[in-house]
Amino acid sequence: xxxxxxxxxxxxxxxxxxxxxxxxxxxxxxxxxxxxxxxxxxxxxxxxxxxxxxxxxxxxxxxxxxxxxxxxxxxxxxxxxxxxxxxxxxxxxxxxxxxxxxxxxxxxxxxxxxxxxxxxxxxxxxxxxxxxx
Length: 133
Prior knowledge:
By secondary structure, this protein is mainly alpha-helical. The chain has 2 domains: 1-83, Arc Repressor Mutant, subunit A; 104-133. The chain has 5 helices and 3 strands; from the N terminus they run H-E-H-H-E-E-H-H. A 3-stranded antiparallel sheet has the order 1-3-2. Helix 1 (2-13) packs across helix 2 and helix 1 (2-13) packs across helix 3 (36-47). The longest helix is centred in the C-terminal third of the chain and has 26 residues, at 107-132. It starts with a helix and ends with a helix. The relative contact order is 0.12.
């Protein structure tokens, strides 16, 4: 269930709730190696709901990726809203206008940057071959 909570949390952070598999895998790897805090948080959230991704229609497959559904958003909100009497409310640090957090590039921007990077590599290889001859 921790995996499912992590997927929901990742998808809800993307525009329109859609992420391609490569982005999902990357984000999951980052969260999985971020320390025990994330694991504990997902365990707490998972204990609040017994839902499954595809059979409960929380997530749907589309165009090589996954999209969170309206049901998925509702389940995630209900997991985050419920607290047991033993849980403490987590304090959220508010960002001031001067300390903006840079958002992740959107899929189209990432694709464009990747194409440009590959093009630069090709050109560098061609220059190296020309100088080697």
